[in-house]
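Example record used in the benchmark description.
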Amino acid sequence: MTSLILQVSKKAFSIYVLTLLIFASFLLVNQSAKAQVDLFVNGGFETGNFSGWTVVQQLNSGGDWFVYSGTLSPFDSTILAPPEGTFAAVTDQQDPSSQVLYQDVDVPIGTTECSVIVYYVNTAQVEDGEIGATEVDAIFVNGPNLNFNEGPNQQARIDIMDPLAPVFDIGAGVLLNIFQTNPGDPGTLGYTTLNFDLSDFAGTTVRFRAAEVDNIGIFNFSIDDVTCLRDNAVEVPTLSEWGLIAMAGILGIVGFMFIRRRKLTA
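Model output (structure tokens):
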């Protein structure tokens, strides 16, 4: 009879331990997935607005940044639908314009995996024979600044900025250039993921800025899914770690009780 009780007890104990291990594994996987934190607020614009972002227009700008969905820009140009989720950000204009979209982020110590998806359609063109063109080419002109009033200027760029620099600065305030259109670039760029690293700015605050200026023709410049992920596990134990510690304690107690019970029934 005692042998039968011990066999039943061993089987019940094994099932109990297996259940606890499965639960601990699930807790570890679940909390590990939650350990990564995005430095950007509303990086995919899925709120349907610019919550977390700041938009600045040059005085008398004939355009702006917009949150859009679907395949039409705010002024009815045909563009691609957002690549991620329902919404993305895009520039559009009816007259020459210049505008920036930015967000300041605190860069933590450690590795940060960052990316942004870009897309554009530049309808400003030169025809065959004009200013040396041999075919219909898109016009990109990188002016000396982001002012639409000071000579030809048709460009878009994304920069990591000193947050104390003027928002339209393209000089010393630019800490890292992530993207820029240049003369000779194609008139259309499909959605392209750009990866960048902020490790050099760990422990500081930087500004992610997307800028677009146009005074030659309509230029729709779009960004989406702006993301910088960091691993939270380097700071304090995650819930998964505390969960495993608790599980180890429970298993230790159960094991002690099982051994004690064996001694009592021996």
